[in-house]
Amino acid sequence: MVHYPHPIIAREGWLHITIAFIVACAVTFFVDWLWAIPFWVIALFVLQFFRDPPREVPKDPNAILAPADGRIVAVEKIQDPYLEREAIKVSVFMNVFNVHSNRSPVDGTVRDKWYFPGKFINADLPKASLENERNALWIKADNGADVTCVQVAGLIAKRIICHVSQGDRLSRGQRFGFIRFGSRVDVYLPIGTKINVNIGDKVSATSTILAEFREEYKVAAI
Question: From the candidates 165, 183, 204, 207, which is the catalytic residue?
């Protein structure tokens, strides 16, 4: 299941971090500390890449939360290629210095999941949404709305990790996956959804309210 004890460092990076620091230590002790400097720089980069700090979930039950850290590169009305419906797509581009843990934008249940092998072009480009390696989740929100959340690999991303399967339950802000080394996340929302971000805005996973459900989907706050 998705829930797991969460240190500040994502579990997906433990092996990479361990290898990087072992190599840096080995070069330091068996070669020379000057030669080891580049290896320590690499080790620290790997450490920061896999950081995954806890985030506070906004209380508004109608809020749709950012699924990733990064910059908004698309807000557009478009055809959802997974559910074959007209939708609003909001895309978050992550560079190598952003947190790459992916989190659920809504409370709901995973109705379906699709994986597509593909290319590794720059995730900042619009065509990356349909040409790159990607993993899509159809989340049926508790209020009945359909939300499609898509992990898209980037130029140097080599693995999309998704910990959920069809039938799994997700809560807003819950970690469901990770993309290693550069990527984007696309969210397809129902037409009429109030979008709270613009192209170029910087967002933080869970903390940033990406959008709000339209009136017919709204539920009363507790």
Answer: 183
Residues 144-153 as b/e (b if ≥16 CB within 10 A, e otherwise) read: ebbbbbbbbb
Give the global pTM.
0.84
Backbone angles phi, psi at 12, to 5 degrees: -65, -15
pLDDT digits (tens, 9 = 90+) for 18-67: 999 999 999 999 888 888 999 999 999 888 888 888 888 998 888 999 99
H helix runs in the chain, sequence order: 14-30, 33-49, 128-131
pLDDT (tens digit, 9 = 90+) per residue, 157-199? Answer: 567 889 999 999 999 999 999 887 668 899 999 999 999 999 9
Q: Where are the alpha helices (DSSP H) in 73-186?
A: 128-131
Please state which CATH number belongs to domain 63-216.
2.70.70.10
Specify whether 129 is catalytic.
Answer: no
- Sign for the CA dihedral angle at 222, 69, 21, 12 comes to positive
